[in-house]
Amino acid sequence: MGERAAGHPGRRPDPADLAVVNEIAAGRGPVPRIDPVTGTATWRRPVTAGQLTVAFARDVVGTFTEPAISRIRMCAAGNCYLIYLDTSRPGNRRWCSMQRCGNRSKVRGHRDRGDKS
């Protein structure tokens, strides 16, 4: 995979950055509610940008701690620099997206095998 990006997998976040995330995550986030008509989860309105920032910071806390942090990966495609959270059951996903990079890799492999016959 290599070190193609500054925030590459395997590197722990800087403690100063985590302090900022922790401070934001301690704020007042959006208030969840159940819509009485549809029964779906929603947020009490209005939702502010500040509240969304708090919700995002709380997601960061969950992503940058175990077990999730050990599943942060960089796409295996040589021309893709996306970083993703591998949520597959076995934890062996290789590409950011099967529809994008995974498919391209499989097509390339198929063509390479076809050229050798």
How much of the residues is beta strand, in percent?
5-15%
The structure class reads alpha+beta
Overall number of domains: 2
| Spatial ordering of strands, largest sheet | 1-2
State Rg: 20 Å
Unreliable parts? 1-7
Task: Give short descriptive properties of this protein.
alpha+beta; ABATE; two-stranded antiparallel ribbon; ABATE_dom_sf; two-stranded antiparallel sheet; 2 domains; 4 strands; Znf_CGNR; 117 residues; disordered N terminus; Zinc finger CGNR domain-containing protein
Descriptive account of the structure:
- With 117 residues, the protein is of the alpha+beta class.
- It folds into two domains: 7-65, no CATH class; 75-117, no CATH class.
- It has three helices and four strands; from the N terminus they run αββαββα.
- The protein has helices at 15-25, 49-63, 98-115; strands at residues 32-34, 41-43, 72-74, 83-85.
- The strands form two sheets. Strands 1-2 form a two-stranded antiparallel ribbon. A two-stranded antiparallel sheet has the order 3-4.
- A hairpin with an 8-residue loop joins strand 3 and strand 4 (83-85).
- Residues 1-7 have low confidence and may be disordered.
- It holds the Pfam family ABATE.
- This is Zinc finger CGNR domain-containing protein.
